[in-house]
Design brief:
Length: 143
């Protein structure tokens, strides 16, 4: 079984390209994924994982994913190799993305487009008199 589930922040906006032969969209991006544990007194470490998405998923990533945004991806690990112009062989390992998810908390409409909501701050309730009492009348329910 080859299945990868990652959640991390985009290091830059996805790079959308098209294949030469078939003109199929392909998006490349890197996720900064925090390691689960950190050594006491040290800054949290992250791994930078290369990802590639194809077709509609690639277009979705390009249209909706932005640098700094936290996203979730599900896919598989793939290794590949190629020869450059000088004949040198290169190898890479990347996640082929099959599913994508938004992982940030919802934005506050008063915040700017580039800043993300602080998940540690509690929502503010301005007027508690706006609540309405709902009567408990179960007679009309079909179950």
């Amino acid at each position: 079984m080859n299945k990868v589930i990652l959640m991390g922040r985009l290091t830059k906006d996805p790079d959308l390209r098209y294949t030469n032969a078939s003109n199929i969209p392909v998006a490349y991006f890197t996720l900064a994924v925090n390691r689960r544990f950190q050594k006491q007194g040290e800054e949290r470490q992250a791994d930078f994982i290369s990802c590639v998405a194809w077709s509609k998923t690639a277009e979705f990533c390009k249209n909706y994913f932005k640098k700094g945004q936290q996203v979730g991806v599900i896919g598989r690990i793939q290794t590949r190799s190629w020869d450059d112009e000088q004949g040198k062989k290169h190898y890479t390992t990347e996640v082929v993305v099959e599913e994508t998810y938004f992982a940030d908390s919802k934005r506050d409409p008063n915040q700017s487009q580039d800043s993300f909501h602080d998940s540690n701050s509690a929502p503010q309730i301005e007027d508690q008199n706006d609540f309405v009492t709902i009567e408990d009348d179960d007679d009309d329910l079909p179950f």
